[in-house]
Amino acid sequence: MKHRVLYYMVDGSTEAGQAALDTIEGGNQIELVGCAHEPNVCPTAEQLAGCEGFVGEFGPVDDACADAMAATGMRIVSNMSIGLNHVAVDRLASHGITVTNCPGYCSDDVAQYAIALMLDLMRQVTFLNRDVRDGIWNPMGGYIMHRTQGRTLGLVFFGSIARAVAPIAQALGMKVLVWAPTKSAEELAAAGCVKAQTLDELLGASDIVSLHCPLIPETESLIGERELALMKPTAFLINTARGPIVNENALVAALDEGIASGGTRGICGAALDVLADETEPNQALIDHPRCIVTPHCAYSTQEAYGTVRRMSLQAVVDKLVFNRKPEHTVAE
What we know:
By secondary structure, the chain is of the alpha/beta class. It is about 35% helix and about 15% strand. It folds into 2 domains: about 5-105 and about 300-330, Rossmann fold, CATH 3.40.50; about 105-295, Rossmann fold, CATH 3.40.50.
């Protein structure tokens, strides 16, 4: 008998997953059960029935879902993500269910996207395009623009994505300042970066602040009214991490103040690939003339999809077929 795995994809297709399984030793002992669903909706007990494994793309697992998984004999929850703030990890582990993620699968992709957003803000690509679409042809419109050389990029934390951002920024002639409490000055210097001793120091010194921290209790609303007030009025904020790291009402106010003050207070602009609530996104930010919002797509390349499929399916093969601990186990 094959091990049945609920392959919880929005479109319900198992075709790409099966193609990845065909390249994995032992993959022929896994049966993928397709299940189309709305994004950000937990699977039901009926959908979970008879499955030993779960591979989720945009499927959260709350406490009730974790209990339902335990009741149906689930042995592993393999998440096609890096962050796990949408998964009841402790509850699953309390039932003896292994939980895995896919660290690093899209580090280069998100890093390139963060740089793309930075360049977009610095040169007003999106904002000037909006003007042209509105019938305004003014190459001198908007705020004063600067080249990258000599500017300071501040990175909040220094995981795999921030590490991939740094050399691109350095190649553009930028100084890279990093606030990462767990990283030493020597480690950062080896990557060509300068250590900020505090977040406040980084915010005050950076021309662009790019967030690369996980969503944990200590980072929720990390960037709020006080922190935005510490930034230069000419500075930009980029978030490709998690939406709740930024207090969105405070950000709207800082952007408004930047416009109202003629660029002497507030901040100049922001680019967000993530929002605090992506099912009912903040319309004030989407409509704001100094904000770019994209639909949580920084990771989205064909190469990243291929990597994350293979990593997540390798985990279920390891657990169910070979009864060994998957490489990227976060709880069990």
